[in-house]
Amino acid sequence: MNFFKIILISFTVLLFSLSQSYANLSEIPMSLNNWNVISSSEVENTSDGLKAVQNGWHGVCGISTKKYFNFVDSETFIKFKIITSDHVFVEPGVYIEGKQTLTAWRLTTKYASSGSTVISSDTWYFLRIKINSDKTFNVTTAINNYDTEGGTIIKNQSGSVPYTETLPNREISEWEYIQNTRILINFNSITDSSAAIIAGEAKTTALPISLNDGLIAYYPFDGNCMDLSGNENNGTIKGANLITDKFGILDHAYSFQDNAIDHILLPHNILNNLQTFSFSAYLSIESFNNSNNLVSCARSDNDNSFVIQYNQVEGNGWRLLFGNSLFEFEPNSVMDDKQWHHIVIIKQIGIGKLYVDGIKIGNDLTLPENRLQIDPGGLIIGQDQDCIGGCFVVNQGWEGKVDELRIYDRALSEDIINELYEQFIRECNYDDRDEDGVIDIFDECPNTIQGTAVNNNGCKAITLYLKIEELLEKVNQLETNNSIMNYTITELNSKIDSMFTLQQTQSMVRNILQWGDLNGDEKIGLEEAIEALMMTSGIIKK
Question: CA-CA-CA-CA torsion for 69, 279, 419, 61, nearest 10 degrees?
């Protein structure tokens, strides 16, 4: 391969890398479809963005993203302004429980407090938060624009994320929160007066948390008890029978009888030594004359190491057992109709949560903080163990149906719970109108042109390999004709339009022209391309 080809391929990689930095930056639309309201805030849509108003009562006011993100190795951009005549603490940023946010702490209005930087009312500020994989971070606050886009820096902070943070009654890893948290745009008022914050923009390179993040076992029960999470935590069927599922598909769910026999044995390592985990399942109950033990975890010195049950004989519904300690969720009778329901039970460090059909039931439970200890053979679905792997008793088993069982090693966020519930209520539909191999209910780009390569979401796949091959072919043609490579802006657009959106393409071309179009003719020749590469690599300065 000659020098000319090497330079062209390098330039192509430069184009691709630059465009990817634009493609990975996702904007979060300023609408209540994407944001939750914090506390008692009143939120309204304005021409400037979402406006959160606090009237007459001190405390936290603002909005938070409905989606959760993994902020490791990411940049987040927030544009905001505060409107007040009083003294408030302004705290937009990446949320960490116990510290509120990893943010431009502290920004205040009216006067400084504890070393804060004073900002003005009714002025736009631009916050950029960069969190690195080595646990270091940088937070920059600027006016006029983001600091990376010519803004004037008024506050710059760097540091590292502590591994743990001590909270009331428990210790939690801040770094764990960084990997599963949300964006807050908020302020904290210490007076009973009127103030507001306007969120004009929020965008991030952080990846949103998906259904598969932290999934350690997934049993769709499609004719067997195979684990489809990829972790090979396959279960063993002991008496439970295949039945028709809620969508009417034969042999796609399991039925259990309270007969001291029917159960499923799962590998104990799924939950062993975990402090935080989540269960999600489609369930129905046929009888309420027993304790309906759904999950039983046992070890040699304690056959009730951890138990999930729906007990209306001794209690009022969903309950958790840890050893000899019983914890009851608030009464909820929705299961009494003997129909299918979607249930999520979450155990965090010191916290228990229950969701039924996408709705949180009651307040959080205060639970033991210790990790689960389960012996081999001691993780059972459908029975209560009185010894490891057995000693079942009639009137203690689950009498009902189970389907779509998922177990996570993290606490599910509400947006993921809602996504799971939406799957639960969907009609069973395998239509694929654009015939791209991704059925419509999972297809985020339902009108893809036939023949287009797509990713798992049904959207156009980006492949650099094909583009290099096309450009090599172009090089060979140019060499044959002894031509000089000159691409106009129009030609550049046409070359990469099939890879990127129009906006991404235009931004990329403007940057390339800025670096490499030395004579201002809106063309990049070979010498200019080489010089642009040398500039971006740091060999020469612009």
Answer: -50
DSSP 331: P
* Sequence ranges of the chain with CATH classification 1.10.238: 3-21+463-537
Fold that domain 215-412 belongs to in CATH:
Jelly Rolls (2.60.120)
| 265 three-class SS | strand
> For the structural domain made of 3-21+463-537, what CATH number should be given?
1.10.238
- Distance separating alpha carbons of residues 479 and 115, to the nearest angstrom: 64
Contacts of 355 (CB under 8 A, 6+ apart): 342, 343, 344, 345, 346, 361, 417, 421
User: What are 425-455's pLDDT values in tens digits?
Assistant: 875 455 676 777 776 656 667 677 776 666 6
408 bridge partner residues: 215, 278
Q: What are phi and psi of 94, to 5 degrees?
A: -95, 125
Rounded to 10 deg, the angle between the 464-480 and 489-496 helix axes is 140
Reply yes or no on whether the pLDDT at 203 is more than 50.
yes
Residue range 26-204 in CATH 2.60.120:
yes
**End-to-end Cα distance, the chain:** 29
Cβ distance 30 to 63 under 8 Å?
Answer: no
